[in-house]
Amino acid sequence: MRKRTRTRTATDRSQYSVENEWTKADLALLEELKRAEALLPDDAPRALLSVRLSVLTDDTTSPVRQELDLRMLARERGCRVVGVASDLNVSATKVPPWKRKELGHWLNNRAPDFDEILFWKLDRFVRRLSDLSTMIDWCLKYGRNLVSKNDSIDLTTTAGKIMVTIVGGIAEIEAANTSTRVASLWEYTKTQSEWLVGKPAYGYETAVDEDGKTILVIDATAYRALHWSRKVAMRKRSASARRMVRVLVRAGLCDPTLAASTHLRRLRNPALMGYRVEEDKNGGIRRSKIVLGAGGKPIRVADGIFTEDEFHSLQEALDGSGKGQPTRNPDGATKFLGVMICADCGSNMIVQQTQTKGRSYRYLRCGKCKAGGQGAPNPEEIYSKLVEDVLRVLGDEPVMTREYRQGAEARKEKQCLEESVSYYMTGLEPGGRFTKTRFTKETAEKTLDDLIRQLDAIDPESPGDRWVAVHNGKSFRSRWEEGGMEAMSADLLRVGVKCKITRTRVKGVRAPHIRMKLMIPKDVRDRLILKQDDFAETF
């Protein structure tokens, strides 16, 4: 094998971190821009800055520079910056604006708080024409504007809308070309013995040989863990995967978060023979399969941790010790997952399915307690009791839906009333036009009083854009009767309702006694309000 010279701990193009990137000059400019912003009137347009970067290279613009440029653009436009949605290490091709952590929060929950979205360049904002079209529709619906620092984009004009579509099309073509190149590279690497891209399988790490090429070498710690696991699996009384993990963690050979299922997948990976593999999802079972080269033979990329005989004998041992458990259900075996929690450790209760002598059994167990705690053999009865308790407490609550109300009409009405009040007050001043006769004065005073009453009757919040809760005529009981347990589980998880499960051993009885305690947040009515997703029908 070629000589190992250096181990790589990360890829050459690392993810960007904004920490310590602000220089003294940058901070001084930031304070200057904030002081200028403080002089703006209260009714100045509000700007949200969108900063995004996937990978920092010599050709990209850092988040610090993007933010400062956008703040200067906001100053030129006379806008007050109300927030910075900074989404770093995020691909615009893979993640649309409404699904990004920070920008998505502003779009979905804080739409009334800003008037414009400023971004450095269109490809910093979106890279798909469909995403751009969705954002344009969203902005027109909510009366918002998109503004780019380096592109002629302004949704308030027809020319701006045409320009944003043209530029967006160019960005999508560029993104498609990049995607094609990446896909082609991955397909090419599958046929090469040299390691070009990707994360090595457990047991290997990347290194650079004397010729400067990237190769795979065996990780010494993982080698010890794998060979010890094979040794105990080959015994007459083989050790379980759970037992293997406990010993390996205690010996410091594996991470404490290692799960038994993960360790089994590692032991079953053909990559341990030094071959190139790819993921093979078949029937809900996560496995890897060998990639064959042009001649129909496996592609060797490293020395094998196990020989072929050692690997195949290990698989036979694992097959013999396995219990032939049923295939994992892609939709999940546990209903109300995340709602039902263990009273002892606070972890989620899960349903474990076992198969013995041709019969299937289902037990509700704890995810962290030793051996799952006392398993309850009647999950469906527990589900029914939980449904009954939830319906009793929350079933009669009205279904409220959050709707967006724009205050443009209310603002116009308020402005018109204020101008009319000012007009009549000026006319009633000494020497004014309404003070010439008693009749005109009394009529003007009566009209002024009526205008003031109308002005006072306007809801102080109505002139501003806002969210309001509207009853859709249904109760949650009827909603859950239509949607079933799945709809109830989704709502309870969204609201934060928990159900503590306490299991107590009963003498002479195998099944434990189950006690359930429903835990409902104090602000449950506010949390129950349904928030319509403006982007739900995009895909």
UniProtKB/TrEMBL annotation:
InterPro entries: Resolv_N, SSR_resolvase, Zn_ribbon_recom_dom. It comes from the Bacteria. The lineage of its organism: Bacteria, Bacillati, Actinomycetota, Actinomycetes, Kitasatosporales. This is Recombinase family protein. It holds the Pfam family Zn_ribbon_recom. Residues 47-195 form the Resolvase/invertase-type recombinase catalytic domain. SMART domains: Resolvase. Keywords: DNA recombination, DNA-binding.
